[in-house]
């Protein structure tokens, strides 16, 4: 049997399709790494590597399994902490209100600026990481967020506290954006869905893990000491980047790549000095910014992100920011410990979605390629949205009805858990789709996923509590469920017309 003849655009997905699986002849090299037609494969010789790695050992695609996952692990604390740092204070509003002689809902608005600034922070990080490298953006992001976390801890009043919190959101956002690029830099097509699942899990469980820990600490420590513990978590993230982070940006067009070797070189990479010196020939800040905003003209990005992600995540963020308003007063009368334990519900929902996505997304991909002779269309990824979307609708209804009729707190927890399962399950499927259709613009596309996610979260804080107080939780969360149900039109349209849209509005030329 002759080896399949594959075109370059089919190997890297630039034409919107992938040839991800071909039967490799038994005459393939015994090493199982190169097929007779010169294409590199996995060690067992069964899967062609997409994209094809270079022969350079410094190519991140050629790094060892241990090296890849060590660098990936250095990214994850920053992803955990992006929303963790913002929602950490959601269980401390009552303490702060006493210090500042304010009402609790007014104190809660200190979160809104930090949520909103995650959008601009993520958008600004993209041109910098495309021009100067991923590592310095990640390092400065974590270091500066640590600085402003310390500032929030020692703030003497509401105004200075809110200013520091706002800057926390701005500087803490990059890990949620550049993570998709780092996955693209280091891992092959057949590995990416699971890595995206882990990456998305890390920043979507953060909003619940932070309050879970801070509520326990609040039993013993006042809010300032509580925030001091948060400083320790960010210091750990900075140390992880320093000790285990590495530059994954690699130039595949023949220009000089950024690589680390030696203490001085590594320090230069971390600070961005090396990236600044070696940026000649790389895309300019203006070009990346122009490409970044031009992506919004592509309906196959705008619809699944703004049209769906905004509405599936805004209610999740709204619940996190207001849940104590519902369960601390009568009839539930939750203590700090009880509030902390309630946050186990969204965490369990997110963990369940992690296990589900770890299996289901690969199942969808493998089934499609087997049925279509090894050819893969990115729109198939979006089938992973529907099961999680349905559970999200059910979760919002159960949550609202439980609060409205003062049902057992298990109903509140169960509804919340289903909603959070939905958030991760849908986000992973959409992120995988976006990476498939924009493989050379992963950070650019990812920044819009993050931006539209936080736009909804920023706005909902201002009206969630008032809405529930005016109309009752049943109508409030039932209406939110109806909005989520209607948002599925964006996904359906993308699946039906996505291939035609990709042909009509192709992605900009690759930057690096």
From TrEMBL:
Q: Which SUPFAM superfamilies match?
A: MFS general substrate transporter
Membrane topology reported for the UniProt record: Multi-pass membrane protein
Q: Say which domain of life the source belongs to.
A: Eukaryota
Recorded GO molecular functions are: transmembrane transporter activity
Matching InterPro entries: MFS, MFS_dom, MFS_trans_sf
Which residues span the membrane?
71-93, 137-155, 167-189, 196-215, 227-245, 300-327, 339-361, 382-403, 409-435, 447-465, 477-497
Q: Give the matching Pfam families.
A: MFS_1
- A cellular component term, taken from the record's GO annotations: plasma membrane
Q: Which residues form the Major facilitator superfamily (MFS) profile domain?
A: 71-504
Q: Where in the cell is it found?
A: Membrane
- Its predominant location is membrane
Ordered alphabetically, the record's keywords are: Membrane, Transmembrane, Transmembrane helix
Q: What is this protein called?
A: Major facilitator superfamily (MFS) profile domain-containing protein
């Amino acid at each position: 049997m002759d080896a399949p003849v594959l075109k370059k655009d089919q190997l890297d997905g630039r034409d919107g399709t992938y040839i991800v699986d071909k039967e490799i002849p038994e005459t393939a090299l015994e090493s199982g790494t190169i097929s007779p037609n010169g294409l590199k494969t996995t060690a067992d010789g069964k899967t062609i590597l997409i994209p094809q790695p270079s022969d350079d050992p410094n190519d991140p695609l050629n790094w060892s399994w241990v090296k890849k996952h060590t660098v990936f692990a250095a990214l994850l604390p920053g992803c955990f902490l992006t929303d963790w740092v913002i929602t950490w204070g959601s269980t401390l509003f009552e303490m702060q209100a006493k210090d500042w002689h304010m009402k609790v809902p007014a104190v809660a608005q200190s979160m809104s600026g930090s949520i909103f600034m995650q959008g601009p922070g993520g958008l600004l990080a993209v041109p910098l990481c495309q021009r100067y490298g991923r590592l310095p953006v990640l390092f400065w992001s974590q270091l500066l967020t640590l600085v402003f976390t310390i500032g929030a801890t020692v703030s003497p009043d509401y105004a200075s506290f809110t200013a520091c919190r706002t800057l926390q959101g701005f500087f803490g956002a990059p890990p949620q954006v550049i993570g998709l690029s780092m996955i693209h830099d280091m891992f092959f097509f057949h590995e990416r869905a699971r890595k995206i699942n882990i990456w998305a899990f890390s920043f979507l469980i953060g909003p619940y893990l932070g309050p879970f820990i801070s509520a326990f600490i609040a039993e013993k420590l006042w809010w300032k000491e509580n925030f001091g513990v948060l400083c320790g978590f960010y210091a750990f993230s900075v140390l992880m980047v320093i000790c285990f982070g590495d530059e994954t940006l690699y130039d595949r067009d023949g220009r000089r790549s950024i690589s680390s070797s030696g203490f001085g070189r590594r320090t230069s990479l971390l600070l961005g000095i090396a990236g600044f010196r070696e940026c000649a020939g790389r895309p300019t800040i203006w070009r990346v910014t122009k490409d970044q905003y031009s992506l919004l003209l592509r309906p196959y990005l705008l619809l699944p992100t703004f049209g769906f992600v905004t509405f599936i995540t805004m209610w999740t963020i709204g619940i996190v920011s207001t849940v104590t308003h519902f369960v601390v007063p009568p009839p539930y009368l939750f203590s700090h410990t009880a509030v902390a334990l309630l946050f186990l519900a969204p965490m369990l929902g997110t963990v369940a979605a992690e296990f589900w996505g770890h299996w289901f997304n690969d199942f969808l991909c493998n089934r499609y390629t087997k049925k279509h002779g090894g050819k893969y269309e990115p729109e198939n990824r979006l089938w992973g949205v529907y099961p999680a979307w349905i559970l999200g609708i059910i979760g919002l209804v159960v949550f609202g009805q439980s609060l409205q009729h003062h049902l057992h707190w298990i109903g509140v927890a169960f509804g919340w858990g289903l909603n959070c399962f939905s958030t991760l399950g849908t986000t992973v499927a959409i992120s995988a789709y976006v990476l498939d259709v924009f493989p050379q613009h992963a950070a650019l596309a990812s920044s819009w996923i993050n931006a539209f996610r936080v736009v909804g979260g920023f706005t909902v804080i201002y009206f969630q509590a008032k809405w529930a107080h005016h109309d009752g939780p049943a109508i409030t969360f039932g209406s939110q469920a109806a909005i989520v149900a209607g948002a599925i039109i964006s996904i359906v349209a993308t699946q039906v017309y996505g291939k035609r849209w990709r042909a009509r509005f192709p992605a900009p030329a690759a930057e690096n």
